[in-house]
Amino acid sequence: MSAEPLSGGGPVVPGRDPGRPAPRPAARRLTPVRAVPAPATTPFVRPGRHAAPETAPTDAAPDADAARDAPSASHAAGASLAPEPAPTRETPEAHAARRVRETWDEVEAHVDELADWFAALLFSLAPETRALFPTRVTEPARRLVRSLVLPMSTVDRPDELRRLVEPLVREHRALGLHAGQYEPLGVALVGAMRRYGGQAWDEATEHAWVRAFSLAAGPMEQAVRAAATPAVTAGTVVGHRRLSWDLAVVHVRPDVPVPHRAGQYLTVEVPQRPRMWRALSPATAPRPDGLLEFHVRAVEGGWVSRALVAHAATGDRWRLGPASGRLGLDPGSSREVLMVAGGTGGAPVLALCEDMARRPDPRPCTVFLGGRVPEDLTVLDRLRALAEEHSWLAVAAVCEDDPLDERTLPGTLPEAVLRGGDWSGHDVLLSGSPTMIRATASALLVDGVPLDHISYDPFAD
């Protein structure tokens, strides 16, 4: 819009001589606004320091005096509006957790390079930790990094952090870490993030990561010091049966029974791949004799899984880590149950169904077991045998690549599950590959199943 006066005189106002020029309006005077100073900078925390500053730096908050003196738009317009409530100030814990989540999202695409750098820094700071890793350090280092970032991202939710500590400490102890090594772990993690954090990494972000690690590592370090049970148990392979070129069933008898619940998994180390731990889920509910049954599929690029399928033999000695995982039935729920399993993910589902059969009043349960071909459904016969004995259990098989098989449903697991009915009032348990879990969970959420009704154990590689 031009600042020049209107030409042509403008509209005629009644009662005023058109020949007289209109009085000029008084110039509007604006109240001066104080400049907003930049937020104070918290002193830089060196990566070797284990403590975090008491107050986390905040994102460019305006000065309180300037905000009070500046006129609001409603005052300038002459309106009388009720004052807006002051925004809630972010706690230091919430700030740290948020920064960790945001920064991790930026670097996760380069997690392998970050894990290698993390391992190199860790070995230079604590040379004794090199013996805990195999020759190829990328994969175990990646798992260790993620096991540290996960609790750091929840330091603003104490209840969730408390639930994470126990299973993570079990994994760290099984790896061979002790309480005194958490500080070099933190230094190596922050150093690796500093290198790969890119433009998202600055002093404020570094402060947030140091604070989050301090808050997360404290409970884990205390739990390691307080642990009374052995970190690992030895066991002997007493049976190895190869079902196909990429699938095998292995039975292991531990020297001492490993306490676990149906649906949980154990981390194992095998002689063919020393210092390379893998998570395997027992296919049976806990047995009085302690015998463990594992169903193993050789996956592409899987060093341990291929060795287990092709080379595991009777008499091999395994190391078994403590049980972990949250897959299981909510004891406080009375809802019916839906279990969806893909491939060898049927093993923990079978264990859960066997455990339910031992209870006096099991809830109605529907199981969808899926695979590419019928041979992938390793636990189908045992699940159907249970269903014949117990009226509360219904079992449906799904084969994606064999739509003409009369014993199975066609299509993918998510498609078959959605065709099966309305599951919005059920507790849903998912077990299988990360791809299958993501696809099924997304389909169920879109179909109206509440998020807090869906549970699974994500195996992050």
TrEMBL record:
One of its GO terms (molecular function) is heme binding. It comes from the Bacteria. Transmembrane segments: none annotated. Residues 1-100 are annotated as: Disordered. It catalyses: 2 nitric oxide + NADPH + 2 O2 = 2 nitrate + NADP(+) + H(+); 2 nitric oxide + NADH + 2 O2 = 2 nitrate + NAD(+) + H(+). InterPro entries: Cbr1-like_FAD-bd_dom, FAD-bd_FR_type, FNR_nucleotide-bd, Globin, Globin-like_sf, Globin/Proto, MRET, OxRdtase_FAD/NAD-bd. Residues 28-46, 53-83 have a biased composition (Low complexity). It holds the Pfam family NAD_binding_1. Residues 230-330 form the FAD-binding FR-type domain. Its EC number is 1.14.12.17. The keyword NAD applies. Residues 90-100 have a biased composition (Basic and acidic residues). Residues 90-225 form the Globin domain. Its cofactor is FAD; heme b. Keywords: 2Fe-2S, Iron, Iron-sulfur, Metal-binding, NAD, NADP. Signal peptide: none annotated. In the C-terminal section; belongs to the flavoprotein pyridine nucleotide cytochrome reductase family. This is nitric oxide dioxygenase. It comes from Actinomycetospora cinnamomea.
